[in-house]
Amino acid sequence: MPVKKYIFPDREAWLEGRKNHIGGSEASACVGMNPYKDNVTLWEEKMGLVIPEDISDKDYVRYGTAAEYHLRELFAMDFPEYRVSYDENNMFLNSDYPWMHASLDGELVDNQGRHGILEIKTTNILQSMQREKWHGRIPDNYFCQVLHYLAVTGYDFAVLKAQLKSEWGGELRIITKHYFIERKDVEEDIRYLVEAERKFWDCVTSGRRPDFILPAI
Questions:
Q1: pLDDT tens column, 132-175
Q2: In this structure, how many other beta carbons lie within 10 angstroms of the beta carbon of residue 110?
Q3: 189, 40 in Cβ contact below 8 A?
Q4: Cβ-count burial of 72 within 10 angstroms (0-12 exposed, 13-18 middle, 19+ buried)?
Q5: In what order do the strands lie in the sheet with 3-7?
Q6: Does residue 67 lie in a domain region?
Q7: Structural domain contains residue 149
Q8: 16: domain CATH number?
Q9: Parent domain of 54
């Protein structure tokens, strides 16, 4: 598979490398499944018409960034059947999908020698509706992110590790969930997302504003 992995010398170079691609966290906007950004806003950002909000200094983002190392190490201890590795400022590019890039929270190799993705999420549960999105499933925007990464890397499987924080009666509660996804089970979803991203990117290269996709209720 025409996949190349790049390691950038620092975050600034990595951010520069992200330009002119759709990233995993943006994939869901292409199909109207991003609760924070619609497909037209994403197109305006890619066209340089608006500047994306910089959220890197938000408390929840800083927490997630700092916690990622520890959660990855915990995963390695809890699931010794996987070999876990990570390269800072990593980026995967696939010449079959030149509009896409993937930056992984971790790479996995199972005891059969298969390669996989480790995706780590930390989130604060503020409402019962948010909790329901994690009940027996992955929220749509994060599921799209995993599909995007599987498409770019060509890897065999993915594991999403989620740390869910909430307060109940003044007491902090932390729940950790693990979701295991086999590529063979989501091939149709991957193809659907790749085609949606291709159509979106055609709008970027042609300068044609995409039709607004109504978000799912």
A1: 889 889 999 999 999 999 999 999 999 999 999 988 778 999 99
A2: 15
A3: no
A4: middle
A5: 3-7, 90-94, 101-102
A6: yes
A7: yes
A8: 3.90.320.10
A9: 3-206
